[in-house]
Specification:
Distance between the termini of chain B: 62 Å
Order of helices and strands of chain B: HEEHHHHHHHHEEHHHHHHHH
CATH superfamily of the largest domain in chain A: P-loop containing nucleotide triphosphate hydrolases
Number of domains of chain B: 2
Radius of gyration of chain B: 26 Å
Shape of chain A: globular
Order of helices and strands of chain A: EEEHEEHEHHHHEHEHEEHH
Largest sheet of chain B: 2 strands, antiparallel
CATH topology of the largest domain in chain A: Rossmann fold
Largest sheet of chain A: 6 strands, mixed
Number of domains of chain A: 2
Number of helices of chain B: 17
Strand order of the largest sheet of chain A: 6-7-8-3-9-10
Structural class of chain A: alpha/beta
Largest interface: A-B, 37 and 24 residues
Number of strands of chain B: 4
CATH class of the largest domain in chain A: Alpha Beta
Strand content of chain A: 25-35%
Helix content of chain A: 25-40%
Structural class of chain B: mainly alpha
Oligomer: heterodimer
Chain lengths: 233, 418
């Protein structure tokens, strides 16, 4: 569905990604793990077109997207939940969700709204509350809900567990699995390697801007070097 | 108390220095030489008094503000009718205000109507800038440039091609919008301070261009004798120009120069009502939401597929077009315009209106525009202390209500879920 082929990204003169190639298949959860500064977020942002890939190709549904503008890429049927949630804090939950379906027709967005509220009953309770007044977990749900409002076929999640309590993380991961059952392909970037690998079909390990390992979720979970580096022995 | 001592001493010292330099000493010319003359004893007494007041206020600031908190603030919410009642009363209240606006000029003096017209121009400018600064969050210090474009569009078209006010009004709006778009393209990748500086520069460029392009704009002499608007072809002058009719002849009444003033006022009211209506609609449309979202979080907007440049550009263009309308009307009302009317201070006043009113709040902006134009008129008897008072009021305002007179209350968007 999404294919990166020898992608390199630079920040000025500093190279953050070195010839990264990976593939996301239809209907799976793919996870990308790595330490701080490995380039996980950079990789995700490169897919979104900011920063732009210097070399290589990014293909989504058989169409090259690396030369498109960020705003055009985001209308192709993929959605991103950026790091740090970035909800509109002065707007209500309702309006936040509305912004997600900005480019969808009225009927389609109403249908999707119902669906999102079903997935996150919490958002229904907070429907006319301002985004900024909600707890971190609720905000994360709102961020995911907002991304889902555009009816994406591929959802990119950047550290959805950041700064959340274990029980909330559990809920978020349950929802991610539920989304997969509905046929949404998910590309998950996580620090929380243990939990991410447990639900993932496949995973990649990123180190210093290079993919150093790949395999099924279980295989990586049981791999000694991964255990040592990311799972605490 | 101990902790407050040093800041209090410092504030008193600053007060002393400033008052000494501004009031305490004077330069006087004696023949060819300048001599420094000290003030008399009573002035020094006042200075000492001011210093003591500042010192004591700073010293006891903590206890004073605590005392203020203890005074129970009157709960006025009980006086307002209930939510439902209010919603039912709202349309009536609005229609009452609108009828009042139309009836009022026939009962008051000509000067008052004239002042009201000026106020309405500022209301229009404030509302226009509110789109750019309040909704989209783009600091524009050169807003007066679009005002000038609108004014000169009408003045030049009327002088060279003899076009009427009503034909020029949409042209002025369109042209100002075009200028907004042209300026917007290169500058909207900037943000914050940089954007402010570039727009400031643009405002000056337009003014200097108008000042120096003497062959077309008349330079500093300006353009005079601009036609007043007519009512369906009826003029408001004493004698009709060729091939047209005057208002008083058509209705068979005596000529009265106040007819013209009232007519101009009514045109301004209509323009302002139109502005309010349009902006209100746009604010509830998706593009209005997008402006707000962009002001809040640029990255989130892009992640949702919105194109920031297009959204910013639309806000800029729309704000500029209202300045164009206001400028066109201003030229028609004055009958004379020159680059003098479009200096930076105008931009600053319009921006002050928006900030004072509470960014993004339309009603607040209207109130602030009224306050900003009428208060200086009322304070005319204080002469040169007028601006001092004005500055003082602004400082107090920022201390007590930094969010503006009436901060923005956002209209709710209803998505029906059935």
């Amino acid at each position: 569905m999404l294919r990166l082929d020898n992608v390199s990204t630079f920040y000025g003169k500093i190279q953050a990604l070195h010839n990264v190639s990976l593939e996301v298949n239809q209907g799976e959860i793919l996870t990308l793990i790595g330490a701080n500064g490995a380039g996980k977020t950079t990789l995700m942002m490169t897919i979104c077109g900011d920063p732009r890939a210097h070399g290589g190709h990014i293909e989504f549904d058989g169409q090259q997207i690396q030369h498109l503008n960020t705003s055009d890429i985001m209308r192709q049927g993929l959605a991103v939940v950026p790091e740090g949630r970035r909800i509109f804090s002065a707007m209500t939950v309702e309006e936040n969700l509305f912004m997600g379906s900005f480019f969808r027709g009225k009927e389609e967005s109403e249908e999707q709204l119902e669906h999102v509220l079903e997935l996150f009953p919490r958002l229904k309770e907070r429907y006319s509350q301002r985004g900024g007044t909600m707890s971190g977990g609720e905000q994360q749900m709102l961020a995911i809900g907002r991304a889902l409002m555009s009816k994406p076929r591929l959802l990119l999640l950047d550290e959805p567990s950041l700064g959340l309590a274990p029980i909330i993380i559990q809920q978020i991961f349950e929802i991610i699995e539920k989304l997969r059952e509905e046929g949404v392909t998910i590309f998950l970037v996580e620090q929380n390697a243990h939990q991410a690998l447990k639900i993932a079909d496949r995973g990649y390990v990123l180190e210093n801007g290079r993919i150093v390992m790949s395999g099924t979720g279980d295989a990586l979970l049981n791999d000694d070097s991964v255990r040592k580096a990311y799972l605490g022995g | 108390m101990q902790r407050a001592l040093f800041p209090a001493l410092f504030a008193a010292g600053v007060t002393f220095l400033l008052t000494c330099l501004v009031i305490g000493v004077r330069l006087e010319q004696e023949g060819p030489t300048l001599t420094v003359v000290g003030a008399d004893a009573s002035t020094w007494g006042w200075i000492a008094f001011a210093v003591v007041v500042v010192f004591l206020f700073q010293l006891f600031q903590g206890p004073i503000s605590r005392l203020k908190q203890r005074i129970p603030s009157a709960d006025a919410t009980g006086l307002l009718p209930g939510e439902q009642m209010r919603n039912r009363l709202k349309p009536w209240l609005f229609s009452l205000i609108i009828v009042g606006l139309f009836v009022w000029p026939f009962m008051v003096s000509r000067g008052a109507v004239d002042l009201a017209t000026l106020t309405l121009i500022y209301v229009m400018l404030g509302l226009g800038l509110n789109i750019v600064v309040g909704f989209a969050g783009l600091l524009d210090l050169g807003y007066v440039a679009f005002y000038a474009v609108g004014a000169y569009t009408y003045a030049l078209l009327s002088e060279y091609f003899g076009l009427s006010f009503w034909a020029c009004l949409p042209i002025a709006g369109l042209l100002a919008a075009t200028f907004g778009c042209i300026l917007g393209f290169p500058v909207l990748r900037l943000r914050g301070d940089y954007l402010a500086i570039v727009t400031l520069g643009f405002g000056e460029i337009i003014r200097i261009l108008l000042n120096n392009w003497t062959s077309v704009t008349g330079g500093p002499n300006g353009i005079g004798g601009i036609d007043k608007p007519s009512l369906f072809g009826l003029e408001f002058s004493r004698r009709a120009s060729e091939g047209s009719q005057t208002f008083h002849e058509f209705f068979g009444i005596d000529y009265d120069s106040s007819h013209k003033v009232i007519f101009l006022y009514l045109v301004a009211v209509l323009l302002v009502l139109l502005t309010i209506y349009v902006i209100n609609r746009v604010q509830r449309m998706p593009i209005g939401r997008a402006w707000e979202a962009l002001r809040e979080d640029d990255i989130a907007c892009r992640s949702l597929g919105l194109n920031p440049t297009v959204i910013k550009l639309s806000a800029f263009t729309m704000g500029a077009s209202f300045a164009g309308f206001a400028g066109c009307f201003f030229a028609a009302r004055q009958g004379f315009i020159s680059p003098e009317s479009f200096t930076f201070i105008e931009s600053a006043i319009i921006l002050a209106i928006v900030v004072l009113g509470g960014m993004g709040s339309q009603f607040g902006v209207i109130l602030a525009a009224i306050a900003m134009t009428i208060l200086p008129e009322l304070a005319r008897e204080f002469q040169e202390y007028r601006m001092l008072m004005f500055g003082g009021v602004m400082v107090l305002m920022m201390l007590w209500r930094p969010q503006g007179l009436l901060p923005m209350k956002r209209p709710h968007l209803e998505l029906k879920t059935s």
